[in-house]
Every structure is written in C-alpha cells, then in structure tokens.
Amino acid sequence: MLAPERHELILRSLRRHGRLRVAELAAELGVSAITVRRDLAELDQAGLLRRVHGGAVGTSQIGASQSDQLTIGIVVPNATFYYTDVIRGAEAMAERYGARLVLGVSGYDVAVEAERLEKVLGIGVDGLLLSTALGDGQAGELGWWLDDIDVPVVLMERAFGFPHVEREYDHVRTDHAYGAMLALRHLVSLGHRRIGVNLNATVTAYWLRQGIAEAAASLGVDLFDSSVSLAAAGENPIPSAQLDAFLAECESFGARAVLVHSDEPAARLVERAMERGLRIPDDLAVIAYNDETAAMAVVPLTAVCPPKLLLGETACELLIRKLRAAPGRPTATQHLSLLPQLRVRSSCGALVAGAAGLHAG
What we know:
- Keywords: DNA-binding, Transcription, Transcription regulation.
- It comes from Kribbella qitaiheensis.
- This protein is α/β, with parallel strands linked by helices and 361 residues long.
- Helix 2 crosses helix 3 (33-45), helix 5 (82-96) packs parallel to helix 11 and helix 9 (240-253) packs across helix 10 (263-275).
- The longest helix has 16 residues, at 204-219.
- The protein folds into 3 domains: 3-65, Winged helix-like DNA-binding domain superfamily/Winged helix DNA-binding domain (Arc Repressor Mutant, subunit A, Orthogonal Bundle); 71-174 and 309-338, 3-Layer(aba) Sandwich (Rossmann fold); 176-306 and 342-358, Rossmann fold, CATH 3.40.50.
- It is elongated and about 80 Å long.
- It has helices at 3-17, 22-29, 33-45, 62-65, 82-96, 110-122, 176-189, 204-219, 240-253, 263-275, 308-323, and strands at 19-21, 50-52, 55-57, 71-76, 100-105, 127-130, 153-156, 170-174, 194-199, 222-225, 257-261, 285-289, 302-305, 335-338, 341-343.
- The protein has a 6-stranded parallel β-sheet, sandwiched between helices.
- The chain is built from 11 helices and 15 strands.
C-alpha cells in the first residue's frame, strides 16, 4: 500500500473515530508502528491532524487532548546487574521532571529488540533512551534502522556514528578505556610490570581493549590478553579447569597481577587461587571491572566502578531538555563521556605514596 492510500485511510478512520492509536492503525493497515508514526508526522505537518501520545486526534481536539507530561521510552539489553542502576537513574530523573518512563528489554537479542522498539514507539513516546543489543564493535551490523526512528534518541553506552548511521546522535557513555587505564596504573603503582587480562565477551570489552592497549604502551608494561573463557554456563559455576588454565597462563607469563571483567569470574578466580595455595594479594593481585558484587567476594575485590546511576540520570535529563527546547530553536548534539572510579579493596592493597591522583573512590 502506497503512502497516499494509507494517508486517506488514516484520515477516514480519524473522521469516523475521532482519535487514533498507533498500535491499532498498524494492525489495521498491516504495516509497522514506525511506518504509521511517519505517516502521522507527515499528516501533522500538513495540518490535517495533530499527533498526541500514542496516536493522533483531529485538529479541533488538540487543546483538550494534549498533555504536558512527557512519555519516554527506555530500551536496554537487560534489567539486571549493570543496567539496574542505569534504569534507576533514568527513572529518578524522569520523576523529577514529571515524565513517564516506559521500559523495554531486549535480552541482547536483535530480533527481540526490534519487537520491543515497535511496542515502545507504538504507544506514542516523545523520545527514546536506547542501549542497543549491538555494541560499538558491531556497528557494521547496525544497518539504517536507527535512522528510521522518528522521535529524538539519546544513546546510552553506545557511540554509533557515520558511516554506520546517517546522522549524529546524542550519546552518554562510560569511558571504559579510561577505566582500564585506572586499573593498570594502580597495579603499576604497586610494582607490577607483567599483567594478565581476562575479559568476558561483552560489548564493554571493545572499549576495554582499547584502553588496555593504550595504557600498556604509555606505562611500559607487558601484558597478555587471555583467550580462556571465564564465563559461567547458565546457573552452573565457572569450571575449575578454566580457572586453572588462566592461572597457568599467568604463571607461565610471570604475571602476579590480573584485570578481570567482570566481578563474578574475578571472585571465583580468587577462590580458586586460594584453594591452590596462593595468597591474595601477595602472590596474585586482582582487579575486577564493574563493581556489582566485588565488595562481597571472599577477599573484597578492588574494582573499577562505572557511574551507572549517573549515566541513566544524565541521558534522561539530556533527552528531556531536548524535548522541552523552544520550538524552532536548534539544540546542539552532545557526546558525553563519564569517568569511572577505582575502588581500592583488599585484593590488591592500598595505593603507594604519591599516587593519590589515580581517582580511587
């Protein structure tokens, strides 16, 4: 069905019902919610109807139907651990401005993410906070779907740009490369010059590897990036054989310090090392990345802590300010990086004298 035909059907339905809902129109016309929203935007621009939350009304109804409350969609890969605080931060900021937040969770599944986006956009959100299932290292797989979203978007923990998308997007992300630098600088301050690295296969690893490479070059340290997987299989704990394999690599390389992403494998590594008679941190210094459960490890873990709560707050406030800007007044696109902190605990001791500038939190 061509756009002019859809427009005629939409206007006919509006005359009959007085109010339209995006989800119902999409089902009636057999098209996506994004297509319907684009049609409504074109008809609104032509003065034939007025868009409101969730759909559209006739031009004579706008005064009675329009609400000052903003509705903001937030779509994230999961709602636990890392993103729990991101969501809480966005929720707190939305509440401060009297806005409503609508959550969608993709489970790091691109197909599921498309469905969640359709549903969230279909209810008529004014803007979108988005952390896609694809990470920056997978930008080539993104395609152009992001550019089809017809409401303002602020990306969270993603920094997609040209040529993978057509236009620049506001984004707020953690400077994970800086976090990796913090960890290695701390280990160097304790006298370590050979360091092992083990990163989970997550989107964060893309930025961590950049920071690790830069830090190793600037600090003049030797490190190895292990290929041994320390990921748990479902509900089962990490197999001892995998932990032993990584410890064997460290011994072979002469590394008595490690950076492990994330908390759970770092905690299990400490337990396994102690079972094998190693002392923490004397024989093996450990830094975890994320700081979700690091403080509860058998030996409390020194950890790099991304500013997750602040990230959600900052992204939500940026979007709300953009939505509330005066009509016709352009707003600058912003790329914001937030710095993580290093929280020093027992797994690798205190900072040496004179190293107070390493941002320990």
